[in-house]
Amino acid sequence: MRHLFENRCKTLTMEEAQKQLEMSKEIFVLDVRTRNEYESGHIPDSIHLPLHLLPVSLEQYVKDKQAKVFVYCRSGNRSQQACAFMMRQGYTDVTNIGGIISWQGSVIKGVS
């Protein structure tokens, strides 16, 4: 069953995600990397929620299970796992936007 959800996760390129983020402030952006990775550079206005904390903290940050959520990590692997987990929890509009290594926009260093 787990593999079915992983195959159904929507994906977008970072370029397309950036365009959508420029048009809408209603999209939650989750960074599921470690604290050190996040502090080394993250997408502006992203929420830092390391993958291992998703099960205990997700609903504190994203209460609405119909909210549009973009998830990223370094290369796309952890964000894929996070998307699959979120779908199993009933979130309906989750998109894996891959890895920050493909992000062309500005990044924030440190804690925001």
What's the short story on this structure?
The chain is of the alpha/beta class and 112 residues long. The chain has helices at 2-8, 14-23, 35-40, 54-61, 77-88; strands spanning 10-11, 28-31, 47-48, 68-73, 93-99.
How would you portray this structure in words?
The protein is an alpha/beta fold and 112 residues long. It has a single domain (2-102), classed as Rhodanese-like domain (Oxidized Rhodanese, domain 1). 38% of the residues lie in helices and 19% in strands. It has a five-stranded parallel β-sheet with strand order 1-5-4-2-3, with helices on one face. Helix 1 (2-8) packs across helix 5. It is globular, with a radius of gyration of 13 Å. The mean pLDDT is 92.
Summarize the SSE layout with pairings:
Elements: H1 2-8, E1 10-11, H2 14-23, E2 28-31, H3 35-40, E3 47-48, H4 54-61, E4 68-73, H5 77-88, E5 93-99
Parallel strand pairs: 1-5, 2-3, 2-4, 4-5
Helix pairs in contact: 1-5
